[in-house]
Amino acid sequence: MDAQLQSGVMLVGEALVDEFAEQPVAGGAPLNVARSLAALGLPALLVSRLGLQQRQLPGTGASGADAGARLVLASMRRFALSEQGLQFDAHHATGRVSVVEEGGSHAFLIHPQAAWDHLDELPAQALLHSQAPAVLYFGSLAQRAPASRLTIQGLLRTAKARGCLRYLDLNLREGQVSLDVIAESLAEADWLKLNDAELAQLQRCFGTGTLDPLQPAAQLQRPVAALLRRFGVQRLILTRGAAGYACFGADGTLLAEGPGRQDLTLVDTVGAGDAFSAMALAAHLRQLPLAQALNLANGYAAALCGQRGPVPESDPFFQPWREALGHAGAIAA
Asked: PANTHER family given for it (predicted)?
């Protein structure tokens, strides 16, 4: 897999444990997207940082992993993901998120001082140079602490210089990052993926007032154009729940849109946005037309909402989606 990552996606950020009431599961947006990409047959390399057991020394790697790290590693191995991008931390534990379910929605308590807050830039930069990915995926949460923020911003500058597509799945979490971090991230993104609530928040912070992100997509073109021009973003992919999705070009032009899925069987929505990003990126790398790519992403995210947790463990779930992507076309470099 590593030898052909130049055709795939490098994902940098948080790998953690989502603590549900019934059991803990491996999670974090970059890990969720990486697992879906791998299950869909696309090369993916996760760059993250996990904790070591107490009294373990740096360099002991996976053999000294703490309980949370072992859970993450087991899931990565289930999806045959490379561990080459993992770092191990002797002073900070693997990240944890306590998930509180309330009437079909979720509240998240993201615990501070996690291993992924302390990403080391040098090994990450070395991988970016050696692997030459087509896409660098990043978000905002992993930039809440100075060390990882500097690492990710450095990777983004390198990616830009190398012509690597920088895909920002903003994934705003209340109280985790400042407006400065959000603005820096937007300024380093080529493609931006938001949900409706995030678009409304960005409009309040950086636009000219409030807007209804669920109004007809054509009516969003002007405020979207102003937002994208301000930060130099080339494309915005907007998910809007039951209202469907829309995609806008750099000048705000509506490039594609589609309705929400009415046949949705809802178990939970954890990881739905990550699933949308994974399929959208997979279809892009398979060189599918934009409208087809986003329709697949919408269907895949809806199907995942009928499963428990951020990524299904059952291989038969992925088979029809691999077939829908097709295997005839070469992956774009």
From this structure: HEXOKINASE FAMILY MEMBER, PSEUDOURIDINE KINASE-RELATED
